Amino acid sequence: MKELRAPFLIAVIIPTFLGALIAATEIGDDFNFSYFLLTLVGIICIHLGANVSNDYFDYKSGADVNNPYRTPFSGGSGLLSDTDKKLLKPKHVLIVAFGFYGIGCSIGLLLDFLLGDPLHFILLIGLAGVGLSFFYTAPPFKFSYRGLGELAVATTFGPFVVIGSYYVQTVQLSWDPLLASLPLAALIAAILYINEFPDHFVDKRAGKRQLVVRVGVERAVRGYLGLVAFAFISILFGIAIGFFDLNLGIQGIPLAAAATLVAIPIALKTSDILKKNYNSPLKLIPASANTLLLYSLVGILLCVAYAVRLF
């Protein structure tokens, strides 16, 4: 469970439910629960494959080896890098990663076949998601080592998952799932981003030029504030589009999603912790926990807003 980092599966479970709920508000009784379960299991397997493979490649690069600043949210699992304990063998970890990727890809191929979609959109978006997740730390691209980790994660866990889950049910594209995915994309990027602060000492030494290393911890604080602010602004923008009925062929985010604004105090408290402790890894643990809570709360309330529209 520690190697899989199972608690972080909420990062794909919420957007999968969100995409499915958006679809359900449009197609009603035509919603296919079996397709939804296949989608959920497939996406979870790909996420697990990503978690395990990223742990392997961070170990191989030396980014997680003997990290004195490891926390429950950053620094990897430690199961490979703590060589004195030898809890897991690297080759076994890589085999498990490919196993999960194999199951996830097989489910994607099955869904593509069941949908009979001539565009093969699920196949294309699935392969793109697998590529971004695997090459997040794997060579030759190593997105996180080049300061592109946030963009890769935001794209995969936001638009790709929400639109993919929606498309499995509707076999059509729409602006609505894209609009709804934006706050989740920003907040999942914020989770990754804030967890780079405790790691920046070791990452810099290992040549992992993630975003916080590139801009410097002091200036990087503003980046976190921007991501969180964007999440709430995108929700209000989505509500406004639906509320003012701009005749753009977009339903917009339901008005009930305004309930997500109750999470703003958490965002403000977390930002304050980061501003005061950006150079103290252990003191940042509450900020990392709060960011995960912020993502979960906003994501769940968005799902509830679409469920209200549905029922």
Structural class determined from secondary elements: mainly alpha
Strand content: under 5%
What is the number of domains? 1
| Model regions low in confidence, pLDDT < 50 over at least 5 residues | none
* Terminal Cα span: 36 Å
Mean pLDDT: 90
Q: What's the total number of strands?
A: 0
Shape: globular
Order of helices and strands: HHHHHHHHHHH
**Share in helix:** 55-70%
Number of helices: 11
| Major sheet attributes | none
Gyration radius over CA:
19 Å
How would you describe this structure to a colleague?
This protein has 311 residues and is mostly helical. It has one domain (6-310). The protein has helices spanning 10-27, 33-61, 90-115, 121-134, 149-170, 175-194, 196-206, 211-215, 217-244, 264-277, 285-310. It is globular. The mean pLDDT is 90.
Explain briefly what this protein structure is.
With 311 residues, the chain is mainly α.
Which characteristics define this entry?
311 residues; mainly alpha; 11 helices; globular
Topology:
Elements: H1 10-27, H2 33-61, H3 90-115, H4 121-134, H5 149-170, H6 175-194, H7 196-206, H8 211-215, H9 217-244, H10 264-277, H11 285-310
Helix pairs in contact: 1-2, 1-5, 1-6, 1-11, 2-3, 2-5, 3-4, 4-5, 5-6, 6-9, 6-11, 9-10, 10-11
